[in-house]
Structure formats: C-alpha cells, structure tokens
C-alpha cells in the first residue's frame, strides 16, 4: 500500500471515524487523569481494520496523523513480534498495549478497548493487596446503582442490576506492558462475563461492543473505583446484604 493510500485510512471529515475519534477520546481522558504522561490509550475496531493510538505521544495533543492501522485478519498469531501495519505514523512507535487491545477484539469481539492509568483503579488494586490471598485478585461490589452500567456478559441480554455483584479480575503487573497479554487472556477465560481487567499498581483495560459501550463502562468503573476507595476510608464494605424492597423485573 502506497503512502498516499495508507493515509486515506486515517483521513475523513466524519467526526466518528476512528482516526478522529481516538484523539478526541484521549483528549477527554487526559482531562480525567486517565492518560497522564503519555500513559494509557485507546483502540477502535472497524470490521477488520484496527486503529491504535501510538506509544510516546501526549494523548491530549494526538492527531489523526498519529494513528496506526492494521488488518486484524492479516496478523499471524504465532508471530506476535512481527506485527504488520497498513499505516504507520513516521514519528512514533507502536504501542505496547497493542496485543492487549487485540485480545479484546479477537477473544471478546469488542469494537473498542480503552486502557487508563486512573489513580482510582490503581488504589483499588492496592487495597486488594491487603485482603486474604483468595480475595486479592478480584474486585467485587454490589448494591450500588452504577453497576447497572455493565452488561451481563458477551452474548447475554441486558445489564447487571442494582443487587447484582460486579466482579473485575486483577492481574499482576509486568515490567513490559506487552508481557501482560497472556495474563489478561487467562483472566478473560476465568471471568468470561467481564468487560474489564485491572492491572495491579498500573491501571485497567476496559472494552465494549462499540465505542459508546466501552466509554460508558469505563466511566462507570472509574466512578465505582473512586466510591470503593471512599467506602474503605469509612469502613463500609464493598459487598453488602441489604433487603430488597421490590421484585426484579424480567
């Protein structure tokens, strides 16, 4: 593919085109403290095409010209270090988040994956370190309204309810981000209904069927993480047993 043809992949007047949407989303995430200091990122899948934020770019200053594009079907899963791109920006390197984003697309059929370095996500993983071994690798919370922001799981109808328990697995951090991939995939297998994985002392990966759902779930999670930290300060447990005052609707 020629340079001019490659650049056509990231050139559009449509504000919802992935090459325009990723910089806009990352600029918003920067204001929330999710992608400080070039950390974090976002990727969007449009059928077979995957659009990715690069490594080392200040996310609030990112432009469409900074975006990488690859064909999902053209990748050789046995040669992850030899990833091929349809379009590469001249000034940056591919993000080390790339294989984790691709895991969300190939294993969950996601349309968007967001990675944040939210302080609330990091604090929740630190609080979980203080739990017993059996409970330190999953964040659980119930009886909170914002839980309704999450689907019941891939292929399942409807969202979680107020009284349901939201469970987000936690994996340990590694010195190099791409080395997290196998542990993220293991967490996906162990928690088939999850739309997110926390990385201890690092951040969180959140995905959804499309950009809207991924963003909504990421915002809902950050709200719940902040709430969980404040609840811990007040000695309020994340899991509670409260009476139902109305029946569930089917």
UniProtKB/TrEMBL annotation:
Similarity comment: Belongs to the aldolase class II family. MtnB subfamily.
Required co-factors: Zn(2+)
Gene symbol of the encoding locus: MDE1
Record keywords: Amino-acid biosynthesis, Cytoplasm, Lyase, Metal-binding, Methionine biosynthesis, Zinc
Organism (species): Cordyceps militaris
Purpose of the protein: Catalyzes the dehydration of methylthioribulose-1-phosphate (MTRu-1-P) into 2,3-diketo-5-methylthiopentyl-1-phosphate (DK-MTP-1-P).
Keyword Zinc among UniProt keywords: yes
Coiled coil start-end: none
Cofactor binding mode and count: Binds 1 zinc ion per subunit.
SUPFAM superfamilies: AraD/HMP-PK domain-like
PANTHER family cross-referenced by the UniProt entry: METHYLTHIORIBULOSE-1-PHOSPHATE DEHYDRATASE
A GO CC term assigned to this protein in UniProt: cytoplasm
Entry's EC annotation: 4.2.1.109
Name used for this protein in its record: Methylthioribulose-1-phosphate dehydratase
Biological process terms in GO annotation: L-methionine salvage from methylthioadenosine
NCBIfam families noted in UniProt: salvage_mtnB
Residues annotated to bind substrate: 97
Localization in the cell: Cytoplasm
Chain sites annotated for binding Zn(2+): 115, 117, 202
A GO MF term: zinc ion binding
Lineage, broadest ranks: Eukaryota, Fungi, Dikarya, Ascomycota, Pezizomycotina
Superkingdom assignment: Eukaryota
Catalytic activity reported: 5-(methylsulfanyl)-D-ribulose 1-phosphate = 5-methylsulfanyl-2,3-dioxopentyl phosphate + H2O
Major subcellular location class: cytoplasm
SMART domains according to UniProt: Aldolase_II
Active-site residue list: 145
Domain Class II aldolase/adducin N-terminal per the UniProt entry, residue ranges: 20-229
Class of enzymatic activity (EC top level): lyase
């Amino acid at each position: 593919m020629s340079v001019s043809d490659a650049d056509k992949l990231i050139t559009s007047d449509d504000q919802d085109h992935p090459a325009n949407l990723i910089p806009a989303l990352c600029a918003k995430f920067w204001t929330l403290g999710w992608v400080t200091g070039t950390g974090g990122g976002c990727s969007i899948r449009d059928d077979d095409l995957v659009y990715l934020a690069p490594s080392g770019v200040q996310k609030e200053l990112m432009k469409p010209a900074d975006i990488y594009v690859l064909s999902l079907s053209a990748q050789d899963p046995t040669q992850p270090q030899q990833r091929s791109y349809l379009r590469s920006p001249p000034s940056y390197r591919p993000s080390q988040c790339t294989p984790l984003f691709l895991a969300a697309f190939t294993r969950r059929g996601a349309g968007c994956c967001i990675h944040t370095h939210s302080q609330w996500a990091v604090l929740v993983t630190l609080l979980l370190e203080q739990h017993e071994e059996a409970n330190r690798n999953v964040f659980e919370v119930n009886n909170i309204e914002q839980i309704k922001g999450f689907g019941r799981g891939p292929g399942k109808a409807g969202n979680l309810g107020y009284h349901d328990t939201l469970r987000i697995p936690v994996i340990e951090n590694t010195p190099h981000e791409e080395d997290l991939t196998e542990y993220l995939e293991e967490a996906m297998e162990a928690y088939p209904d999850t739309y997110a994985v926390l990385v201890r002392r690092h951040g969180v990966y959140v995905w959804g069927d499309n950009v809207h759902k991924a963003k909504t779930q990421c915002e809902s999670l950050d709200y719940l993480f902040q709430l969980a930290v404040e609840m811990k300060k007040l000695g309020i447990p994340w899991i509670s047993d409260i009476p139902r005052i109305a029946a569930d609707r089917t």
